[in-house]
Amino acid sequence: MVPAAARRAARPAPRRQPEGTLNTFWGHGGDYQTWTDYLARWAGEGGAGTAAEAARLPRLRPEDYHHETWVRFVNQLTGAVSHRLQAWADSLTATLAEAAADEFAAGRALVQSRTGLDTVRALASHPSLPEDLRNQLRTMVDGQIENLQRQLEDQLTRAVRGGADPKWAEERRRTLRDNPLTTAAKAAGAGGAAPPAPGGGWSYDPARPARRRVITD
To answer: How far apart are CA 144 and CA 170, in angstroms?
Structure first.
């Protein structure tokens, strides 16, 4: 009978995985965890409470992670962006409904809501993300902005068919077109005003457009 000590000595030493590889495979620790923790908070809070963290987010490279891990991260990232966009759209829609009889208030809500869009685009354009991923995220964000612009105008057409005042619908359509949500996307795409830098302009909830602020610029 072989002594236990000999049996242990005869076993080949287990192959040690690099700590970073093991951590990223399971999604714990390191830069991966820093990002996923941040995204979980940002998805629920928007810019509130995450400004300082945004500036410190580490650079990520897909080649540093297992394929499944990277896919999981991308899904969490796109999910967080989609969640914020949906919350922003719901809030804007509710604000426009409250301003049903006030085109000035509706126009102001549309202009102020662009701040929330710029904030979402700032995350999509974060310099610590790979360039191809940034491009895909911005395309997704811009597509959803254009889709919402169309939906708002289509709602007016359906409202008129349902008996709404055509004159009111035309005035609201003019307000939507004079203050298009797509302005932020076009400006960024044409090299205009850049999205807020990570850590700057992130101290508010982009899903809730201000309703009583006076725009002076």
So the answer is: 24
